[in-house]
Structures are given as structure tokens and as C-alpha cells.
Amino acid sequence: MFTKFSELTDVVSILPYCPEDGSWGLLRSYPETKRHKSICQEYRLISVKLLKSVCDAGSHWCSNGVLVKLLKIWLPQEAQENGPLNIHHAVFQMILTTREKASIQTDLSKMGELTWHKDLTALKGDMLTPEIIQYVNQEFCNRETATFLPEHFLRDNIVVELVKEDFLLNRDSDDPFDELVMSTGFSVEDEIGLYEQYLVHTFPYCTMGQGSFTKFMTNFGWSPEATNHLFKCADFEGRGALLPKELLYLMAALEPEVSLSPRSACIRGVYIFRVLYDHFQVQETS
Predict the structure, then answer these.
(1) If both were cysteines, with which of 96, 140, 232, 245 could 100 make a disulfide (CB 3.0 to 4.6 Å apart)?
(2) What are the φ and ψ backbone dihedral angles of 197, each rounded to 5 degrees?
(3) Domain that holds residue 157
């Protein structure tokens, strides 16, 4: 979606759903404002005015759209002077009848490419991470949905805010994984550089799926086959996507010729074991 860090801007995603025929769509749109002119102070992104500007569907859209998720991600100020502190991704669900689906199709397609899927899991082909599937599953678990009103923005499970501490190490940490990173000599600037590349490959989502990970790692000379093993190795939670620190820990474990403490050496050994285990598992099943 983005090719460099300076291109990052706020994103609105729309999930049109037609329960009559069971079809789903996924559509993304960017506000006209560029990053350095972002209008998104706090949560002003979520306003009827902005929604009308990104979707020319009239009053039907404004009365029918439901906020499913709002993602607010911290940006390093070191990267660009006078830039915004955060970028945002708002995900809205739009429930349509078959008649409404046909009549609004043209308006939605003006915003970008829109494809419909009968199988929700087929949407994974349009995504960099499995997050949208999680958003939709939340929506259909009898959870109370949010409205456009500001007092509802902080409702549980609606807003996800990722702050600086979610991405950069605490240098006073006693965590053995953090110790592994510090053993490599990675500086704060190195961490920020990796984080910026992480955002380029993942935003408007906050986790890195296997497809994005493969693209990221092949830039460093790794083969696609090897990246499959590395991804499973780093995905300790088995969620099918990596968080920024999980990528940072893996990159530290791959760093050659470093002086490791006993604890950090043990953590590196865990990564080596997980890669080899996955490699042999694949060989046995092939």
C-alpha cells in the first residue's frame, strides 16, 4: 500500500456486508490531506464530514456505517520535523440489502477497487494481516457497536492505541529478549529505522502478516522458503502475525558475531531450535 515512510497518511477502510447473499467486500480510502497536513488531532478523523468526503454515498452511508475499529499509531518525531504524532486507521462496517448493494456499488467503486467475497476467509487475499477477520468476528459476537459520537470512541475493543513503549525498548529492562537486542548493539536510531520500515510494510494495520514479512525479509537477501521458517519461529503466540517487538527480537537473533550473555544466548538458542524444528516438520510432511 505504501512504498516509503514519508507517504504514510490516515486511512479509512469500509467493510460492506450483504447478509442476504452473505457477501463481503473490503475498500480503503485516504483522506485528501497529506501527512504533514493531517487533520487528525485526537479522533477528529471519525466525523460525518470526513466520511462524506471519502465516500460519495450520501445520507445512506452516514446513517448505516458502524465503527468497528479505530487504530491510532505513534510516529517517531525524530523522523520528520513538525509531523503529526500519530496516524490513524478507521474501519467501518456497512450493512446493505441486495438492492442497496447494487445501487451503491458505483459510489463505492469510485473510491477504489472493490471485490466481493462469499467466504469471509477469502478476504485474507486482500489483506496484509488477519486483523480485518478479527474485527469482523468481534462485530458478530453480540458486542455493542459504537456510533459516531465522540463519547463512544473509547468504548472497549473499539479503539486500539499503540504508543512509543509498544515499539521501542526500555533500556533498563530485565527481560531476556530485550537483553538479546541490547547485546547486538542496536541503537535507538536503529530501532526507529526498523520501526519505520515495519510501518511501511504493515500500515494501515498494526501487525505484520506472513506475506508482508516475506517481502520485508527478501529485501535482506533471504529466500522465500527461509522466510516461512523464520516467520513461524518468531510467531511465538501463533496468531499468524508479528508485533513490532517480535520482529525486532528476531532481527536481533539473526545478527551475526555478537557477544551474548548467558541469558541472551539462551534466547537466541530458542530461535535456532524453532527454525530447525519447523524445517524438519515441513520435510516430514512433504
Answers:
(1) 96
(2) -65, -35
(3) 5-162
